[in-house]
Amino acid sequence: MKKVIIGLVLALLFVSLGVFSTVTYINNKEGNTSIDIAVIEEKVNSIAELSTVEYYYTTLAKYENYKDFYGWKIPLTTTKFFITYDGIIKAGIDLSKVKISVVGKTVLIEIPKATVLSHEVKYDTMQIIDETYSIFNRITITDYNNFMLNEAKTMVTKAANDGLFQKAQQNAIRIIQDLVEPLIPENYDYSIRFR
Predict the structure, then answer these.
(1) What is the C-alpha to C-alpha distance for residues 33 and 179, in angstroms, rounded to an integer?
(2) pTM score of the predicted model
(3) Mean pLDDT per 10-residue interval, the chain, length 195 residues
(4) What's the DSSP call for residue 105?
(5) Is 35 helix (H, G, I), strand (E, B) or coil?
(6) Helix (H), strand (E) at residue 96
(7) Whole-angstrom Cα distance, residue 150 to residue 64?
(8) CA 128 vs CA 1, 63, 68, 84, 171: distances in Å
(9) Same domain for 180 and 98?
(10) Where in the sequence is the domain holding 81, given as residue range(s)?
(11) Contact 62, 132 (CB under 8 A)
(12) Residue 119: beta bridge partners?
Protein backbone atom coordinates (compact mmCIF):
# COMPACT_ATOMS: atom_id res chain seq x y z
CA MET A 1 0.00 0.00 0.00
CA LYS A 2 2.86 2.32 0.85
CA LYS A 3 4.41 1.68 -2.58
CA VAL A 4 1.11 2.55 -4.29
CA ILE A 5 0.86 5.89 -2.44
CA ILE A 6 4.46 6.75 -3.26
CA GLY A 7 3.81 5.78 -6.90
CA LEU A 8 0.69 8.00 -7.04
CA VAL A 9 2.56 10.94 -5.50
CA LEU A 10 5.41 10.54 -8.00
CA ALA A 11 2.95 10.20 -10.89
CA LEU A 12 1.10 13.33 -9.72
CA LEU A 13 4.42 15.18 -9.43
CA PHE A 14 5.45 14.19 -12.99
CA VAL A 15 2.03 15.11 -14.40
CA SER A 16 2.18 18.52 -12.65
CA LEU A 17 5.70 19.09 -13.96
CA GLY A 18 4.55 18.14 -17.46
CA VAL A 19 1.55 20.49 -17.35
CA PHE A 20 3.71 23.35 -16.04
CA SER A 21 6.32 22.76 -18.76
CA THR A 22 3.66 22.62 -21.48
CA VAL A 23 1.96 25.84 -20.31
CA THR A 24 5.32 27.61 -20.09
CA TYR A 25 6.27 26.43 -23.58
CA ILE A 26 2.94 27.55 -25.09
CA ASN A 27 3.13 30.95 -23.40
CA ASN A 28 6.67 31.52 -24.64
CA LYS A 29 5.72 30.33 -28.11
CA GLU A 30 2.87 32.87 -28.24
CA GLY A 31 5.31 35.61 -27.17
CA ASN A 32 3.69 36.28 -23.82
CA THR A 33 6.40 38.46 -22.40
CA SER A 34 5.76 40.47 -19.31
CA ILE A 35 6.10 44.21 -19.30
CA ASP A 36 7.82 46.26 -16.64
CA ILE A 37 5.98 49.55 -16.19
CA ALA A 38 8.77 50.89 -13.96
CA VAL A 39 11.22 50.85 -16.88
CA ILE A 40 8.84 52.86 -19.07
CA GLU A 41 8.03 55.31 -16.26
CA GLU A 42 11.72 55.82 -15.52
CA LYS A 43 12.45 56.54 -19.18
CA VAL A 44 9.55 59.01 -19.48
CA ASN A 45 10.08 60.73 -16.11
CA SER A 46 13.80 61.21 -16.74
CA ILE A 47 12.89 64.04 -19.12
CA ALA A 48 10.73 66.00 -16.59
CA GLU A 49 9.48 68.71 -18.97
CA LEU A 50 9.00 68.14 -22.66
CA SER A 51 8.96 71.40 -24.61
CA THR A 52 7.40 70.45 -27.93
CA VAL A 53 6.75 73.76 -29.68
CA GLU A 54 8.07 77.32 -29.64
CA TYR A 55 5.95 80.30 -30.67
CA TYR A 56 7.97 83.32 -31.79
CA TYR A 57 6.21 86.65 -32.00
CA THR A 58 6.70 90.37 -32.50
CA THR A 59 4.01 92.63 -31.11
CA LEU A 60 3.09 96.27 -30.87
CA ALA A 61 1.47 97.16 -27.56
CA LYS A 62 -0.14 100.34 -26.35
CA TYR A 63 -0.15 101.67 -22.81
CA GLU A 64 -2.50 104.51 -21.94
CA ASN A 65 -3.43 105.94 -18.57
CA TYR A 66 -5.18 109.14 -17.60
CA LYS A 67 -6.86 110.70 -14.62
CA ASP A 68 -10.61 110.95 -14.68
CA PHE A 69 -13.31 112.72 -12.76
CA TYR A 70 -16.54 110.73 -12.57
CA GLY A 71 -15.83 109.10 -15.91
CA TRP A 72 -14.67 112.27 -17.64
CA LYS A 73 -11.09 112.32 -18.90
CA ILE A 74 -9.13 115.19 -17.33
CA PRO A 75 -7.07 117.09 -19.94
CA LEU A 76 -3.26 117.11 -19.67
CA THR A 77 -3.21 113.91 -17.56
CA THR A 78 -2.76 111.36 -20.36
CA THR A 79 0.34 109.23 -20.29
CA LYS A 80 0.76 106.77 -23.15
CA PHE A 81 3.33 104.95 -25.20
CA PHE A 82 3.55 102.40 -27.99
CA ILE A 83 6.16 99.70 -27.60
CA THR A 84 7.28 96.90 -29.88
CA TYR A 85 9.13 93.79 -28.74
CA ASP A 86 9.81 90.14 -29.57
CA GLY A 87 9.09 87.11 -27.44
CA ILE A 88 9.08 83.32 -27.31
CA ILE A 89 6.41 81.12 -25.75
CA LYS A 90 7.37 77.49 -25.17
CA ALA A 91 4.59 74.96 -24.71
CA GLY A 92 4.78 71.31 -23.81
CA ILE A 93 4.05 68.57 -21.31
CA ASP A 94 5.05 68.05 -17.68
CA LEU A 95 6.19 64.42 -17.93
CA SER A 96 6.36 63.99 -14.16
CA LYS A 97 2.53 63.83 -14.29
CA VAL A 98 2.40 60.95 -16.79
CA LYS A 99 0.50 57.87 -15.60
CA ILE A 100 1.27 54.46 -17.11
CA SER A 101 -0.81 51.32 -16.61
CA VAL A 102 -1.33 47.97 -18.29
CA VAL A 103 -4.84 46.84 -19.20
CA GLY A 104 -4.74 43.33 -20.66
CA LYS A 105 -2.28 43.51 -23.54
CA THR A 106 -2.40 47.31 -23.84
CA VAL A 107 -0.04 49.78 -22.19
CA LEU A 108 -2.08 52.89 -21.42
CA ILE A 109 -0.06 56.12 -21.25
CA GLU A 110 -2.01 59.08 -19.89
CA ILE A 111 -0.35 62.46 -20.28
CA PRO A 112 -1.45 65.90 -19.10
CA LYS A 113 -2.57 68.49 -21.62
CA ALA A 114 0.00 70.93 -22.95
CA THR A 115 0.68 74.07 -20.96
CA VAL A 116 2.98 77.08 -21.23
CA LEU A 117 6.39 76.02 -19.93
CA SER A 118 8.04 79.40 -20.39
CA HIS A 119 7.36 82.83 -21.81
CA GLU A 120 10.39 84.94 -22.53
CA VAL A 121 10.24 88.58 -23.57
CA LYS A 122 13.34 89.67 -25.49
CA TYR A 123 14.00 92.93 -23.68
CA ASP A 124 16.88 93.80 -25.98
CA THR A 125 14.38 94.09 -28.86
CA MET A 126 12.11 96.59 -27.10
CA GLN A 127 11.59 99.88 -28.89
CA ILE A 128 9.35 102.71 -27.83
CA ILE A 129 7.63 104.02 -30.94
CA ASP A 130 5.69 106.95 -29.52
CA GLU A 131 5.45 108.33 -26.01
CA THR A 132 3.46 111.04 -24.30
CA TYR A 133 4.03 111.72 -20.63
CA SER A 134 2.12 113.96 -18.29
CA ILE A 135 3.68 115.64 -15.29
CA PHE A 136 0.36 115.07 -13.52
CA ASN A 137 0.31 111.32 -14.18
CA ARG A 138 3.65 109.56 -14.00
CA ILE A 139 4.24 105.92 -14.87
CA THR A 140 5.31 103.83 -11.89
CA ILE A 141 7.14 100.52 -11.85
CA THR A 142 3.87 98.90 -10.74
CA ASP A 143 2.09 100.37 -13.78
CA TYR A 144 4.79 99.01 -16.08
CA ASN A 145 4.79 95.56 -14.42
CA ASN A 146 1.00 95.30 -14.63
CA PHE A 147 1.13 96.37 -18.27
CA MET A 148 3.73 93.69 -19.13
CA LEU A 149 1.80 90.99 -17.21
CA ASN A 150 -1.36 91.84 -19.15
CA GLU A 151 0.60 91.81 -22.41
CA ALA A 152 2.01 88.37 -21.55
CA LYS A 153 -1.52 87.02 -20.95
CA THR A 154 -2.68 88.59 -24.22
CA MET A 155 0.14 86.94 -26.17
CA VAL A 156 -0.52 83.52 -24.59
CA THR A 157 -4.19 83.84 -25.55
CA LYS A 158 -3.21 84.81 -29.10
CA ALA A 159 -0.81 81.86 -29.32
CA ALA A 160 -3.52 79.51 -28.01
CA ASN A 161 -5.94 80.82 -30.64
CA ASP A 162 -3.26 80.18 -33.28
CA GLY A 163 -3.17 76.48 -32.27
CA LEU A 164 -0.12 76.47 -29.98
CA PHE A 165 -1.46 73.85 -27.56
CA GLN A 166 -2.85 71.54 -30.26
CA LYS A 167 0.51 71.53 -32.03
CA ALA A 168 2.32 70.95 -28.72
CA GLN A 169 0.09 67.95 -27.97
CA GLN A 170 0.57 66.48 -31.47
CA ASN A 171 4.34 66.81 -31.13
CA ALA A 172 4.22 65.33 -27.61
CA ILE A 173 2.40 62.23 -28.86
CA ARG A 174 4.97 61.74 -31.62
CA ILE A 175 7.93 62.18 -29.26
CA ILE A 176 6.47 59.88 -26.58
CA GLN A 177 5.74 57.24 -29.25
CA ASP A 178 9.38 57.37 -30.36
CA LEU A 179 10.51 57.14 -26.73
CA VAL A 180 8.21 54.33 -25.58
CA GLU A 181 7.80 52.15 -28.67
CA PRO A 182 11.16 50.34 -28.31
CA LEU A 183 10.26 49.45 -24.70
CA ILE A 184 6.92 47.78 -25.53
CA PRO A 185 7.06 44.01 -26.24
CA GLU A 186 5.85 42.92 -29.69
CA ASN A 187 2.66 41.29 -28.45
CA TYR A 188 1.53 44.43 -26.57
CA ASP A 189 -0.21 47.49 -27.95
CA TYR A 190 0.01 50.95 -26.48
CA SER A 191 -2.35 53.87 -26.32
CA ILE A 192 -1.49 57.49 -25.57
CA ARG A 193 -4.25 59.80 -24.41
CA PHE A 194 -4.62 63.14 -22.68
CA ARG A 195 -6.26 63.54 -19.31
Answers:
(1) 20
(2) 0.69
(3) 49 43 46 59 67 93 88 87 95 88 88 94 92 81 90 96 95 88 85 89
(4) T
(5) coil
(6) none
(7) 13
(8) 107, 11, 25, 7, 36
(9) yes
(10) 34-194
(11) no
(12) 89
